[in-house]
Specification:
- The protein is α+β, with helices and mostly antiparallel strands.
- It folds into three domains: 107 residues, Thrombin, subunit H (Beta Barrel), CATH 2.40.10; 89 residues, Beta Barrel (Thrombin, subunit H); 83 residues, Roll (Pdz3 Domain), CATH 2.30.42.10.
- Helix content is 17%, strand content 36%.
- The protein has a six-stranded antiparallel β-barrel. It has a six-stranded antiparallel β-barrel with strand order 9-10-11-14-13-12.
- Strand 6 and strand 7 form a beta hairpin.
- The protein is elongated and about 65 Å long.
- The relative contact order is 0.11.
């Protein structure tokens, strides 16, 4: 997944030369038309006003794990985010003194002034202690309200007597390839930092899990940026920065973020219940050649078998919504509340069949 070296090029306009009598005059370029979006829509002259507005709500997250004195020296390991940085020696000295192992450093963002913070599950998943640092230098301990390993989303909370700066969700559905985004976080443990770029692609599946549907960004994302937000130009969070391609250990301009339309509902469930209840069908599936999804096998005693699904059935719609891929059907079923009913329109031996399925509760497995 390596990219070729950067190609630097400069675009210049060369006007046509017109010979007038004995001399040549260079024609002026044609003025931009007011109705040409390519010419009149340009990038911001500065991101400073946007940065000033959103950065107070972006936090740095340090996670540590306690170790006993006998094993402390042997277990001191430098996180990848700090290796080769000016902080590596400081980290080693501090760990020998405090007898705790730092598991990593990441980022997050405040979504509620009471202190509710969104980050990645892989940032806080194995932590004994979580410390959140704010842009004004304040440090507060945090606890995990809930986490979801399948989507790599976690919600933590700090206790504070003051109302914290927070940022709102934006509509990732409205984000287009080529739109500007501002990514914020804590790269290499250096502290609050921002980068800018555009959305390079949508709907990326990078093999991280069954619900992959990433936005691909070219804004530089590095170790420590995990859990940080990406903003649209209105200062709304449209994605949760989660992964990046890095053959050499640093950013090569290919980062992946979970769209807000997926993150926000999971965050609300984690705040309410601390875990995610997902629907389960009890089948294995594959994409059908002519569109839709083919049922390959049906689990004995599962919801699909009880509803009458059979191997070879091709799912066309769920609750009237067209099914275009195996991955999309998995997400649709997972989003259904266990115990709820869904109506599936099938093609069986070329004939249309309607089936009502009572969704089960997902524990593991693809369907």
């Amino acid at each position: 997944m390596t990219e070729p070296g950067p190609l630097l090029c400069r675009l210049s306009w060369l006007a046509a030369a017109a010979v007038v009598l004995l001399g040549a005059a260079i024609a002026a370029p044609a003025p931009a038309r007011a109705d040409d979006p390519v010419l009149v829509q340009s990038g911001p002259l500065t991101f400073a006003p946007l940065v000033k507005r959103v950065v107070p709500a972006v936090v740095n997250i340090a996670v540590t794990q306690e170790v006993d004195d006998a094993a402390a020296d042997a277990r001191v390991k430098v996180p990848a985010a700090l290796r080769g940085t000016p902080f590596e020696k400081q980290f080693r000295d501090r760990m020998r003194t405090h007898r705790e192992q730092m598991l990593g450093a990441g980022s997050g963002f405040v979504i509620d002034p009471s202190g509710v913070i969104v980050t990645n599950n892989h940032v806080v998943g194995q932590a004994d202690n979580i410390t959140v640092s704010f842009s004004d230098g304040t440090e507060l301990p945090a606890k995990v309200l809930g986490s979801d390993e399948l989507t790599d989303i976690a919600v933590i909370q700090v206790k504070t007597d003051r109302k914290l700066a927070f940022v709102p969700w934006g509509r990732s559905q409205d984000v287009q390839i080529g739109d500007w985004v501002l990514a914020a976080g804590n790269p290499f443990g250096l502290g609050s930092s921002v980068t800018a770029g555009i959305v390079s692609a949508r709907g990326r599946d990078i093999g991280a899990g069954p619900f992959d549907d990433f936005l691909q960004l070219d804004a530089p994302i590095n170790p420590g940026n995990s859990g940080g937000p990406s903003f649209n130009m209105r200062g709304e969070v449209v994605a949760l920065n989660t992964a990046f391609v890095s053959p050499g250990g640093g950013s090569v301009g290919i980062g992946f973020s979970i769209p807000s339309e997926l993150v926000a509902p999971i965050v609300e469930q984690l705040r309410a219940k601390g875990h995610i209840d997902r629907g389960w069908l009890g089948v294995t599936m594959e994409n059908a050649a002519g569109g839709g999804v083919t049922i390959v096998s049906v689990d004995k005693g599962g919801p699909g078998q009880r509803a009458g699904l059979r191997p070879g059935d091709v799912v066309r719609t769920v609750n009237g919504e067209h099914v275009d891929s195996n991955r999309g059907l998995i997400r649709t079923i997972a989003a259904a509340a266990p115990g709820s009913s869904i109506r599936m329109a099938l093609s069986r031996h070329g004939k249309p069949v309607d089936v009502l399925v009572v969704v089960g509760r997902r524990t593991e497995g693809p369907g």
